[in-house]
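quick one, 335 residues, struct below
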Amino acid sequence: MKNILVTGGLGYIGSHTVVALQQAEYKVVIIDDLSNADESFLDKIETITGLKPKFHLIDLKDAETVNQFFKEEKIDGIIHFAAYKAVGESVQKPLMYYRNNLLGLINLLEAMTVFNIDHFIFSSSCTVYGQADEMPIHEKTPLKRPEAPYGKTKHMGEEIISDFVQAENKNAIALRYFNPVGAHASSLIGEIPKGIPNNLLPYISQTAAGIRESLGVFGADYETRDGTAIRDYIDVNDLADAHVKALNRLLSKENESNLEYFNLGSGTGSTVLEMIQAFEKANNLKINYTIQPRREGDIQEAYADFTLAKNKLGWEPKTPLETSMKATWEFQKNL
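---
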């Protein structure tokens, strides 16, 4: 069995990917600093898969502790999720984002050289495209300067990895995903944001549950079909599946270059109001919402062309939006 390190493995996408990896018979070791995760997810992962992954409470910014980890654990590949991810917060606290998201990445890459690890998967983002001129977005769409520091850390991260794999002859895949939604079918793991949610669907579900008085819709004056911003919403279980397929590609040496990029999205865009309506319809609920001014750092529209992932990874989205909406609400009720 290959030993795979998943950083941020108790977070939203990380925990679902750990489940998928264990079900694909990989041995998983998790690093997480629990800044935006819950240690109870370890037991929940064990309930789902029958296996409890090893867990290390580590801050990746601490290079000495990171190196000590690799002295103790034999690792065959790394999937790197651990990062701060809130667009709005990154505008308010840029240095916190640059320090955390870039220093942690650099410490991991340096450890790869010292401990002879060849395979790395990077949790990237569609934010690297900025506001693209044409839709859908494909991997050859020109990268634009991202609007917010969060997106800039993802763009810089890709640049750092590109230089690193060329210099050290390592192999990496950057998965640029769009907007993750949904929860595991067990209702045991899903997205639990700390504080006020920055992502749309947990904000909707918390409003439905009465935790939030109303949902703020940021901007209704965009040049879209109903004035609200358009995003591509992709189920988190489909994302987890893509990470397993990307790892298989690297370990079987099927990659065609030292660094490959793949878009992960549903291929269609939904407006904020359409998402609210879809949640209401799927769960027979009404959501209280108010129109707010546009949020700094947000773009008007983004949705993916996932053809390359389909052709090279053998991956495509399988989960209907309605299923994601129902799973989100079941998870919310289960909390």
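The first strand starts at residue 3 and ends at 7.
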